[in-house]
Write a structure and sequence with these properties.
about 525 residues, alpha/beta, four-stranded antiparallel β-sheet, 17 strands
Protein backbone atom coordinates (compact mmCIF):
# COMPACT_ATOMS: atom_id res chain seq x y z
CA UNK A 1 0.00 0.00 0.00
CA UNK A 2 1.19 3.54 -0.81
CA UNK A 3 -0.06 6.61 1.04
CA UNK A 4 1.02 10.23 0.59
CA UNK A 5 0.37 13.42 2.51
CA UNK A 6 1.91 16.89 2.38
CA UNK A 7 5.43 15.86 3.37
CA UNK A 8 5.10 12.10 3.87
CA UNK A 9 5.05 9.07 1.58
CA UNK A 10 4.55 5.61 3.05
CA UNK A 11 5.22 2.60 0.84
CA UNK A 12 6.10 -1.07 1.07
CA UNK A 13 9.31 -0.72 -0.95
CA UNK A 14 11.24 2.39 -2.01
CA UNK A 15 13.54 2.00 -5.02
CA UNK A 16 15.94 4.86 -5.82
CA UNK A 17 17.00 4.68 -9.45
CA UNK A 18 15.46 3.70 -12.79
CA UNK A 19 18.16 1.80 -14.67
CA UNK A 20 17.93 -1.89 -15.53
CA UNK A 21 18.54 -2.96 -11.91
CA UNK A 22 15.99 -0.63 -10.29
CA UNK A 23 13.35 -1.28 -12.94
CA UNK A 24 13.81 -5.05 -12.76
CA UNK A 25 13.50 -4.99 -8.96
CA UNK A 26 10.36 -2.85 -9.17
CA UNK A 27 8.70 -4.91 -11.88
CA UNK A 28 9.43 -8.24 -10.18
CA UNK A 29 8.01 -6.99 -6.88
CA UNK A 30 4.97 -5.36 -8.48
CA UNK A 31 4.17 -8.55 -10.40
CA UNK A 32 4.18 -10.31 -7.00
CA UNK A 33 1.59 -7.84 -5.67
CA UNK A 34 3.90 -5.51 -3.72
CA UNK A 35 3.32 -1.72 -3.69
CA UNK A 36 6.48 -0.03 -4.93
CA UNK A 37 7.55 3.61 -5.14
CA UNK A 38 10.31 4.27 -7.67
CA UNK A 39 12.08 7.64 -7.59
CA UNK A 40 14.68 9.25 -9.83
CA UNK A 41 16.39 12.60 -9.80
CA UNK A 42 16.05 12.77 -13.59
CA UNK A 43 13.23 14.73 -15.16
CA UNK A 44 12.99 11.89 -17.65
CA UNK A 45 13.07 8.46 -16.00
CA UNK A 46 15.29 7.03 -18.74
CA UNK A 47 18.13 9.33 -17.65
CA UNK A 48 20.41 6.50 -16.54
CA UNK A 49 23.59 4.67 -17.51
CA UNK A 50 21.44 1.82 -18.83
CA UNK A 51 19.91 4.06 -21.49
CA UNK A 52 23.34 4.88 -22.93
CA UNK A 53 24.72 1.32 -22.93
CA UNK A 54 25.47 0.52 -26.55
CA UNK A 55 27.11 -2.87 -26.89
CA UNK A 56 24.70 -5.46 -25.56
CA UNK A 57 23.91 -7.96 -22.83
CA UNK A 58 25.29 -11.46 -22.33
CA UNK A 59 22.91 -14.24 -23.28
CA UNK A 60 24.08 -17.68 -24.43
CA UNK A 61 26.31 -18.60 -27.35
CA UNK A 62 26.50 -21.76 -29.41
CA UNK A 63 28.15 -24.51 -27.36
CA UNK A 64 28.26 -22.06 -24.43
CA UNK A 65 28.14 -23.09 -20.78
CA UNK A 66 28.10 -21.45 -17.34
CA UNK A 67 31.65 -22.71 -16.84
CA UNK A 68 32.89 -21.07 -20.04
CA UNK A 69 31.25 -17.73 -19.21
CA UNK A 70 32.53 -17.86 -15.62
CA UNK A 71 36.08 -18.43 -16.89
CA UNK A 72 35.83 -15.35 -19.15
CA UNK A 73 34.44 -13.20 -16.32
CA UNK A 74 37.17 -14.30 -13.91
CA UNK A 75 39.94 -13.78 -16.47
CA UNK A 76 38.81 -10.20 -17.09
CA UNK A 77 38.46 -9.63 -13.34
CA UNK A 78 42.18 -10.29 -12.86
CA UNK A 79 41.61 -13.11 -10.36
CA UNK A 80 39.73 -10.81 -7.98
CA UNK A 81 36.14 -11.96 -8.70
CA UNK A 82 33.98 -13.56 -6.01
CA UNK A 83 33.43 -17.12 -7.31
CA UNK A 84 29.99 -17.52 -5.73
CA UNK A 85 28.69 -14.34 -7.40
CA UNK A 86 30.21 -15.28 -10.76
CA UNK A 87 28.53 -18.69 -10.54
CA UNK A 88 25.15 -17.07 -9.85
CA UNK A 89 25.55 -14.75 -12.85
CA UNK A 90 26.70 -17.50 -15.19
CA UNK A 91 24.03 -20.00 -14.18
CA UNK A 92 21.04 -17.68 -13.80
CA UNK A 93 21.84 -14.96 -16.34
CA UNK A 94 20.39 -16.50 -19.52
CA UNK A 95 17.15 -17.46 -17.74
CA UNK A 96 16.78 -13.89 -16.40
CA UNK A 97 17.26 -12.46 -19.88
CA UNK A 98 14.67 -14.83 -21.27
CA UNK A 99 12.17 -14.26 -18.45
CA UNK A 100 12.38 -10.45 -18.09
CA UNK A 101 13.62 -9.10 -21.43
CA UNK A 102 12.40 -11.61 -24.00
CA UNK A 103 9.10 -12.75 -22.48
CA UNK A 104 7.96 -10.13 -19.93
CA UNK A 105 8.92 -6.93 -21.79
CA UNK A 106 9.62 -8.21 -25.35
CA UNK A 107 12.77 -6.19 -26.02
CA UNK A 108 13.39 -6.02 -29.78
CA UNK A 109 16.87 -7.53 -30.00
CA UNK A 110 18.48 -7.98 -33.42
CA UNK A 111 17.79 -11.28 -35.14
CA UNK A 112 19.23 -13.19 -38.08
CA UNK A 113 17.25 -13.77 -41.31
CA UNK A 114 16.13 -17.10 -39.82
CA UNK A 115 14.69 -15.35 -36.75
CA UNK A 116 17.37 -16.43 -34.30
CA UNK A 117 18.90 -13.92 -31.91
CA UNK A 118 22.00 -12.35 -33.45
CA UNK A 119 25.07 -13.09 -31.32
CA UNK A 120 28.08 -10.75 -31.24
CA UNK A 121 31.65 -11.11 -29.96
CA UNK A 122 33.11 -8.54 -27.58
CA UNK A 123 36.47 -8.02 -25.91
CA UNK A 124 37.47 -10.67 -23.36
CA UNK A 125 34.83 -13.19 -24.52
CA UNK A 126 36.00 -16.46 -26.06
CA UNK A 127 32.83 -16.94 -28.12
CA UNK A 128 29.99 -14.76 -29.52
CA UNK A 129 27.28 -14.61 -26.82
CA UNK A 130 26.18 -10.94 -26.77
CA UNK A 131 22.67 -10.02 -27.92
CA UNK A 132 22.03 -6.44 -28.95
CA UNK A 133 19.66 -3.94 -30.50
CA UNK A 134 21.98 -2.39 -33.08
CA UNK A 135 24.23 -0.02 -31.08
CA UNK A 136 21.50 1.14 -28.70
CA UNK A 137 20.85 -1.97 -26.62
CA UNK A 138 20.53 -0.13 -23.32
CA UNK A 139 18.00 2.26 -24.81
CA UNK A 140 15.84 -0.62 -26.07
CA UNK A 141 15.97 -2.35 -22.67
CA UNK A 142 15.31 0.83 -20.70
CA UNK A 143 12.31 1.89 -22.79
CA UNK A 144 10.76 -1.59 -22.60
CA UNK A 145 11.18 -1.76 -18.82
CA UNK A 146 9.85 1.77 -18.26
CA UNK A 147 6.80 1.05 -20.42
CA UNK A 148 6.06 -1.94 -18.19
CA UNK A 149 6.57 0.16 -15.05
CA UNK A 150 4.27 2.95 -16.21
CA UNK A 151 1.52 0.47 -17.00
CA UNK A 152 1.71 -1.34 -13.67
CA UNK A 153 -0.95 -0.50 -11.06
CA UNK A 154 1.37 -1.43 -8.17
CA UNK A 155 4.12 1.05 -9.13
CA UNK A 156 4.27 4.77 -8.40
CA UNK A 157 6.98 6.49 -10.45
CA UNK A 158 8.27 9.87 -9.21
CA UNK A 159 10.60 11.82 -11.48
CA UNK A 160 12.48 14.97 -10.47
CA UNK A 161 12.88 13.68 -6.90
CA UNK A 162 16.42 13.62 -5.50
CA UNK A 163 17.30 11.39 -2.56
CA UNK A 164 19.16 13.48 0.04
CA UNK A 165 19.92 10.92 2.73
CA UNK A 166 18.75 7.53 3.92
CA UNK A 167 16.45 7.43 6.92
CA UNK A 168 18.12 5.51 9.74
CA UNK A 169 16.28 5.50 13.08
CA UNK A 170 19.53 5.28 15.04
CA UNK A 171 20.56 8.61 13.49
CA UNK A 172 17.45 10.54 12.38
CA UNK A 173 14.92 8.95 14.77
CA UNK A 174 13.46 10.85 17.70
CA UNK A 175 14.19 7.96 20.08
CA UNK A 176 17.90 8.28 20.88
CA UNK A 177 17.92 4.85 22.56
CA UNK A 178 17.68 3.27 19.10
CA UNK A 179 21.46 3.71 18.77
CA UNK A 180 21.68 0.52 20.85
CA UNK A 181 19.46 -1.49 18.48
CA UNK A 182 20.59 -3.26 15.26
CA UNK A 183 21.01 -0.66 12.53
CA UNK A 184 18.33 -0.51 9.88
CA UNK A 185 17.02 1.74 7.11
CA UNK A 186 13.39 2.91 6.85
CA UNK A 187 13.43 5.00 3.68
CA UNK A 188 14.89 8.33 2.58
CA UNK A 189 14.47 12.08 2.59
CA UNK A 190 13.50 13.13 -0.96
CA UNK A 191 13.76 16.59 -2.52
CA UNK A 192 10.86 17.45 -4.83
CA UNK A 193 12.80 19.58 -7.30
CA UNK A 194 9.74 21.42 -8.63
CA UNK A 195 8.22 22.38 -5.30
CA UNK A 196 11.44 22.65 -3.32
CA UNK A 197 9.83 20.53 -0.58
CA UNK A 198 11.65 17.75 1.21
CA UNK A 199 9.51 14.66 1.76
CA UNK A 200 9.92 11.81 4.19
CA UNK A 201 9.50 8.55 2.30
CA UNK A 202 9.08 5.69 4.76
CA UNK A 203 9.43 2.16 3.45
CA UNK A 204 9.64 -1.29 4.93
CA UNK A 205 12.48 -2.07 2.49
CA UNK A 206 14.71 0.37 0.58
CA UNK A 207 16.71 -0.39 -2.56
CA UNK A 208 19.58 1.76 -3.85
CA UNK A 209 19.86 1.48 -7.64
CA UNK A 210 21.50 4.85 -8.26
CA UNK A 211 24.13 3.79 -10.79
CA UNK A 212 27.75 4.86 -11.05
CA UNK A 213 30.06 7.79 -10.44
CA UNK A 214 31.70 8.65 -13.77
CA UNK A 215 30.89 12.34 -13.36
CA UNK A 216 33.53 12.70 -10.65
CA UNK A 217 36.07 12.43 -13.50
CA UNK A 218 36.86 15.02 -16.16
CA UNK A 219 36.18 12.61 -19.02
CA UNK A 220 33.36 10.09 -18.78
CA UNK A 221 30.77 8.24 -20.81
CA UNK A 222 28.22 8.60 -17.99
CA UNK A 223 25.20 10.95 -17.96
CA UNK A 224 24.99 13.95 -15.63
CA UNK A 225 23.35 12.07 -12.76
CA UNK A 226 26.18 9.54 -12.34
CA UNK A 227 27.89 11.40 -9.51
CA UNK A 228 28.06 8.74 -6.78
CA UNK A 229 24.82 9.64 -4.98
CA UNK A 230 24.06 6.14 -3.70
CA UNK A 231 27.62 5.43 -2.64
CA UNK A 232 27.83 8.66 -0.64
CA UNK A 233 24.42 8.20 1.00
CA UNK A 234 25.34 4.65 2.00
CA UNK A 235 28.66 5.81 3.44
CA UNK A 236 26.92 8.43 5.59
CA UNK A 237 24.55 5.71 6.81
CA UNK A 238 27.48 3.58 7.94
CA UNK A 239 27.17 0.97 5.17
CA UNK A 240 30.24 -1.03 4.15
CA UNK A 241 31.78 -0.31 0.73
CA UNK A 242 34.46 -2.38 -1.05
CA UNK A 243 36.67 -2.40 -4.19
CA UNK A 244 36.22 1.34 -4.70
CA UNK A 245 39.65 1.67 -6.35
CA UNK A 246 38.43 -0.30 -9.37
CA UNK A 247 37.06 2.27 -11.82
CA UNK A 248 37.02 0.99 -15.37
CA UNK A 249 38.00 3.41 -18.11
CA UNK A 250 36.43 2.67 -21.47
CA UNK A 251 39.16 2.75 -24.12
CA UNK A 252 37.12 4.39 -26.86
CA UNK A 253 35.01 7.49 -26.40
CA UNK A 254 34.60 9.96 -29.23
CA UNK A 255 37.03 12.86 -28.95
CA UNK A 256 36.28 16.41 -30.05
CA UNK A 257 38.16 19.55 -29.07
CA UNK A 258 35.00 21.15 -27.71
CA UNK A 259 34.83 18.41 -25.11
CA UNK A 260 32.12 16.24 -26.68
CA UNK A 261 32.24 12.71 -25.27
CA UNK A 262 30.11 9.75 -26.20
CA UNK A 263 30.76 6.05 -26.16
CA UNK A 264 32.05 4.26 -29.25
CA UNK A 265 30.95 0.74 -28.41
CA UNK A 266 33.33 -2.16 -27.92
CA UNK A 267 31.14 -3.96 -30.43
CA UNK A 268 32.83 -1.83 -33.10
CA UNK A 269 36.11 -3.60 -32.36
CA UNK A 270 34.23 -6.87 -32.02
CA UNK A 271 33.07 -6.37 -35.61
CA UNK A 272 36.67 -5.93 -36.76
CA UNK A 273 37.66 -2.25 -36.31
CA UNK A 274 41.27 -1.57 -35.29
CA UNK A 275 42.90 1.05 -33.09
CA UNK A 276 45.33 3.05 -35.20
CA UNK A 277 47.31 6.27 -35.43
CA UNK A 278 46.58 9.01 -37.95
CA UNK A 279 48.57 7.10 -40.61
CA UNK A 280 46.30 4.07 -40.21
CA UNK A 281 48.97 1.92 -38.53
CA UNK A 282 47.51 -0.44 -35.84
CA UNK A 283 49.34 -0.50 -32.49
CA UNK A 284 47.60 -2.98 -30.17
CA UNK A 285 49.66 -5.93 -31.48
CA UNK A 286 52.65 -4.76 -29.44
CA UNK A 287 50.65 -4.51 -26.19
CA UNK A 288 48.39 -7.57 -26.39
CA UNK A 289 49.56 -9.95 -29.14
CA UNK A 290 47.03 -12.63 -28.15
CA UNK A 291 43.92 -10.41 -27.99
CA UNK A 292 45.08 -7.38 -29.99
CA UNK A 293 42.20 -4.87 -30.17
CA UNK A 294 39.88 -7.15 -28.18
CA UNK A 295 42.04 -7.29 -25.06
CA UNK A 296 40.34 -6.53 -21.70
CA UNK A 297 39.41 -2.89 -21.33
CA UNK A 298 42.06 -1.94 -18.78
CA UNK A 299 44.81 -3.22 -21.11
CA UNK A 300 43.41 -1.37 -24.13
CA UNK A 301 42.83 1.87 -22.21
CA UNK A 302 46.35 1.94 -20.75
CA UNK A 303 47.82 1.10 -24.15
CA UNK A 304 46.05 4.08 -25.70
CA UNK A 305 47.11 6.26 -22.77
CA UNK A 306 50.76 5.22 -23.24
CA UNK A 307 50.66 5.87 -26.99
CA UNK A 308 49.20 9.34 -26.40
CA UNK A 309 51.88 10.19 -23.82
CA UNK A 310 54.82 8.82 -25.81
CA UNK A 311 53.78 10.57 -29.02
CA UNK A 312 52.31 13.69 -27.38
CA UNK A 313 48.91 13.10 -29.01
CA UNK A 314 45.47 14.36 -27.94
CA UNK A 315 43.84 11.13 -29.20
CA UNK A 316 44.19 7.99 -31.27
CA UNK A 317 41.76 6.64 -33.89
CA UNK A 318 39.41 3.77 -34.62
CA UNK A 319 39.53 2.51 -38.20
CA UNK A 320 36.20 1.04 -39.27
CA UNK A 321 36.46 1.91 -42.96
CA UNK A 322 39.33 -0.52 -43.71
CA UNK A 323 37.89 -3.51 -41.89
CA UNK A 324 34.07 -3.35 -41.95
CA UNK A 325 31.77 -3.03 -44.97
CA UNK A 326 29.88 0.25 -45.22
CA UNK A 327 26.51 -1.53 -45.20
CA UNK A 328 27.42 -3.39 -42.01
CA UNK A 329 28.55 -0.16 -40.33
CA UNK A 330 25.27 1.59 -41.16
CA UNK A 331 23.22 -1.42 -40.13
CA UNK A 332 24.97 -2.22 -36.84
CA UNK A 333 26.13 1.21 -35.65
CA UNK A 334 23.52 3.80 -36.70
CA UNK A 335 23.69 5.77 -33.42
CA UNK A 336 27.48 6.13 -33.54
CA UNK A 337 27.25 7.05 -37.23
CA UNK A 338 24.69 9.80 -36.63
CA UNK A 339 26.38 11.27 -33.55
CA UNK A 340 29.79 11.31 -35.23
CA UNK A 341 28.32 13.14 -38.24
CA UNK A 342 27.30 15.94 -35.87
CA UNK A 343 31.04 16.60 -35.43
CA UNK A 344 31.97 16.22 -39.08
CA UNK A 345 33.19 12.62 -38.90
CA UNK A 346 31.78 9.99 -41.29
CA UNK A 347 32.73 6.66 -39.70
CA UNK A 348 32.30 4.86 -43.06
CA UNK A 349 35.04 6.97 -44.69
CA UNK A 350 36.97 8.73 -41.88
CA UNK A 351 39.11 7.60 -38.99
CA UNK A 352 37.22 8.11 -35.71
CA UNK A 353 39.10 10.11 -33.02
CA UNK A 354 38.90 8.40 -29.61
CA UNK A 355 40.28 8.69 -26.06
CA UNK A 356 39.74 6.70 -22.85
CA UNK A 357 37.17 7.94 -20.33
CA UNK A 358 35.79 6.86 -16.95
CA UNK A 359 33.07 4.35 -17.70
CA UNK A 360 32.11 1.79 -15.06
CA UNK A 361 32.51 1.49 -11.29
CA UNK A 362 33.46 -2.11 -10.43
CA UNK A 363 33.33 -1.51 -6.66
CA UNK A 364 30.55 -0.08 -4.55
CA UNK A 365 28.27 -0.96 -1.66
CA UNK A 366 29.06 -4.41 -0.38
CA UNK A 367 26.11 -6.77 -0.95
CA UNK A 368 25.52 -10.48 -0.60
CA UNK A 369 24.04 -12.91 -3.12
CA UNK A 370 20.56 -11.38 -2.55
CA UNK A 371 21.59 -7.73 -2.78
CA UNK A 372 21.51 -7.16 0.99
CA UNK A 373 23.83 -4.47 2.38
CA UNK A 374 25.37 -4.39 5.84
CA UNK A 375 22.38 -2.35 7.12
CA UNK A 376 19.13 -4.21 7.75
CA UNK A 377 16.24 -3.55 5.31
CA UNK A 378 18.60 -1.79 2.85
CA UNK A 379 19.46 -3.41 -0.49
CA UNK A 380 21.66 -2.25 -3.37
CA UNK A 381 21.57 -3.44 -6.99
CA UNK A 382 23.31 -2.52 -10.22
CA UNK A 383 26.42 -0.40 -10.58
CA UNK A 384 26.15 1.17 -7.11
CA UNK A 385 26.51 -2.31 -5.59
CA UNK A 386 29.53 -4.59 -5.43
CA UNK A 387 28.51 -8.24 -5.72
CA UNK A 388 32.06 -9.31 -6.51
CA UNK A 389 31.15 -10.36 -10.07
CA UNK A 390 33.45 -7.84 -11.74
CA UNK A 391 36.46 -8.24 -9.49
CA UNK A 392 39.17 -5.82 -10.53
CA UNK A 393 37.88 -5.23 -14.05
CA UNK A 394 34.50 -5.71 -15.72
CA UNK A 395 34.05 -8.06 -18.66
CA UNK A 396 32.16 -6.42 -21.51
CA UNK A 397 28.34 -6.62 -21.38
CA UNK A 398 28.20 -8.12 -17.88
CA UNK A 399 26.86 -4.94 -16.27
CA UNK A 400 23.35 -5.07 -17.73
CA UNK A 401 23.19 -8.78 -16.92
CA UNK A 402 24.32 -8.26 -13.33
CA UNK A 403 21.69 -5.55 -12.83
CA UNK A 404 19.03 -7.86 -14.24
CA UNK A 405 20.02 -10.92 -12.18
CA UNK A 406 20.44 -9.08 -8.88
CA UNK A 407 17.34 -6.98 -9.52
CA UNK A 408 15.33 -10.19 -9.66
CA UNK A 409 17.14 -11.76 -6.71
CA UNK A 410 16.74 -8.70 -4.47
CA UNK A 411 13.04 -8.55 -5.32
CA UNK A 412 12.61 -12.24 -4.52
CA UNK A 413 14.32 -11.85 -1.15
CA UNK A 414 12.35 -8.70 -0.29
CA UNK A 415 9.08 -10.41 -1.16
CA UNK A 416 9.89 -13.32 1.16
CA UNK A 417 10.87 -11.01 4.03
CA UNK A 418 8.24 -8.28 3.67
CA UNK A 419 5.53 -9.90 5.79
CA UNK A 420 7.91 -10.05 8.76
CA UNK A 421 8.94 -6.38 8.48
CA UNK A 422 6.77 -3.95 10.42
CA UNK A 423 6.29 -0.40 9.08
CA UNK A 424 8.24 2.18 11.06
CA UNK A 425 6.10 4.77 12.84
CA UNK A 426 6.11 7.95 10.77
CA UNK A 427 6.00 10.26 13.79
CA UNK A 428 9.30 8.75 14.99
CA UNK A 429 11.11 10.36 12.02
CA UNK A 430 10.98 14.18 12.17
CA UNK A 431 10.22 16.27 9.11
CA UNK A 432 13.21 17.65 7.26
CA UNK A 433 14.86 20.60 8.93
CA UNK A 434 16.35 22.99 6.37
CA UNK A 435 20.12 23.14 6.65
CA UNK A 436 20.26 26.84 5.81
CA UNK A 437 18.50 29.78 4.21
CA UNK A 438 21.00 31.00 1.59
CA UNK A 439 20.39 30.38 -2.10
CA UNK A 440 22.81 27.99 -3.78
CA UNK A 441 25.33 29.91 -5.88
CA UNK A 442 25.64 28.02 -9.19
CA UNK A 443 29.11 29.49 -9.83
CA UNK A 444 30.44 27.99 -6.59
CA UNK A 445 28.87 24.60 -7.33
CA UNK A 446 30.26 24.59 -10.87
CA UNK A 447 33.77 25.53 -9.74
CA UNK A 448 33.83 22.91 -6.99
CA UNK A 449 32.60 20.19 -9.37
CA UNK A 450 35.28 21.21 -11.85
CA UNK A 451 37.91 20.92 -9.12
CA UNK A 452 36.74 17.41 -8.20
CA UNK A 453 36.81 16.30 -11.84
CA UNK A 454 40.33 17.62 -12.46
CA UNK A 455 41.75 16.21 -9.23
CA UNK A 456 40.32 12.77 -9.97
CA UNK A 457 41.37 12.75 -13.63
CA UNK A 458 44.94 13.90 -12.98
CA UNK A 459 45.69 12.08 -9.73
CA UNK A 460 43.28 9.10 -9.52
CA UNK A 461 42.90 8.30 -13.20
CA UNK A 462 44.22 5.62 -15.55
CA UNK A 463 47.73 5.56 -14.07
CA UNK A 464 48.22 6.24 -10.36
CA UNK A 465 51.24 6.96 -8.19
CA UNK A 466 51.66 7.36 -4.44
CA UNK A 467 52.41 11.13 -4.62
CA UNK A 468 49.40 11.76 -6.89
CA UNK A 469 47.06 9.80 -4.64
CA UNK A 470 48.32 11.54 -1.50
CA UNK A 471 47.78 14.93 -3.11
CA UNK A 472 44.28 13.90 -4.20
CA UNK A 473 43.41 12.91 -0.64
CA UNK A 474 44.63 16.23 0.78
CA UNK A 475 42.87 18.38 -1.80
CA UNK A 476 39.61 16.44 -1.72
CA UNK A 477 39.37 16.50 2.08
CA UNK A 478 39.96 20.24 2.15
CA UNK A 479 37.33 20.65 -0.55
CA UNK A 480 34.85 18.46 1.31
CA UNK A 481 35.18 20.66 4.40
CA UNK A 482 34.36 23.73 2.29
CA UNK A 483 31.46 21.98 0.57
CA UNK A 484 30.00 20.71 3.84
CA UNK A 485 30.02 24.23 5.30
CA UNK A 486 28.43 25.52 2.09
CA UNK A 487 25.80 22.74 2.29
CA UNK A 488 24.87 23.54 5.91
CA UNK A 489 24.10 27.20 5.28
CA UNK A 490 22.31 26.74 1.93
CA UNK A 491 18.86 25.61 0.86
CA UNK A 492 19.12 22.20 -0.76
CA UNK A 493 18.97 21.82 -4.52
CA UNK A 494 19.67 18.84 -6.72
CA UNK A 495 22.98 20.37 -7.79
CA UNK A 496 24.10 21.00 -4.22
CA UNK A 497 23.16 17.47 -3.16
CA UNK A 498 25.12 16.13 -6.13
CA UNK A 499 28.18 18.20 -5.26
CA UNK A 500 28.17 16.96 -1.68
CA UNK A 501 27.84 13.36 -2.87
CA UNK A 502 30.47 13.73 -5.58
CA UNK A 503 33.23 14.89 -3.25
CA UNK A 504 32.46 12.10 -0.77
CA UNK A 505 32.44 9.50 -3.58
CA UNK A 506 35.75 10.88 -4.86
CA UNK A 507 37.32 10.53 -1.41
CA UNK A 508 36.07 6.94 -1.12
CA UNK A 509 37.73 6.08 -4.45
CA UNK A 510 40.96 7.94 -3.67
CA UNK A 511 41.27 6.38 -0.20
CA UNK A 512 40.75 2.88 -1.58
CA UNK A 513 43.29 3.49 -4.35
CA UNK A 514 45.83 4.70 -1.79
CA UNK A 515 45.36 1.65 0.44
CA UNK A 516 45.79 -0.83 -2.42
CA UNK A 517 49.50 -0.74 -3.27
CA UNK A 518 49.26 -3.56 -5.80
CA UNK A 519 48.45 -2.99 -9.47
CA UNK A 520 45.54 -5.21 -10.36
CA UNK A 521 42.93 -4.97 -13.11
CA UNK A 522 41.81 -1.41 -13.75
CA UNK A 523 43.67 -0.15 -10.64
CA UNK A 524 47.13 0.54 -12.06
CA UNK A 525 49.90 1.98 -9.89
CA UNK A 526 53.21 3.05 -11.36
Amino acid sequence: MITQSTDLIETDVLIIGTGVAGCTTALTLADAGVAVTVVTRGRAPQDSNTYWAQGGIIYQGANDSPELLAADVERAGAGHCYPKAVQILAEQGPASVRRVLLERTAVAFDRSPTGDLSLALEGGHTIPRIIHAADATGKAIEIALLNALRAHPNITLLTGHTAIDLLTPSYQGRNRLLVYEPRNCVGAYLLDQDGGRVLRCLARKTVLATGGLGQIFLRTTNPAGARGDGLAMAYRAGVHTINAEFVQFHPTTFYARNGARFLVSEAVRGAGARLVHADGEPFMDQYAPEWKDLAPRDVVARSIHKEMLQRDLPNVYLDLRSYIDRAEILDHFPTIYERSLEFGVDITTDLVPVVPAAHYFCGGIRVDEWGRTTRRDLYAVGEVACTGVHGANRLASTSLLEGLVWGERAAQHIHRQLADTEPFAADEIPPWQSAGSESADPALISQDMSSIKHIMWNYVGLVRTAPRLERAQRELRRLETEIEQFYRRTRVTDELIGLRNAVRAAIIVADAATRNRESVGCHYRE
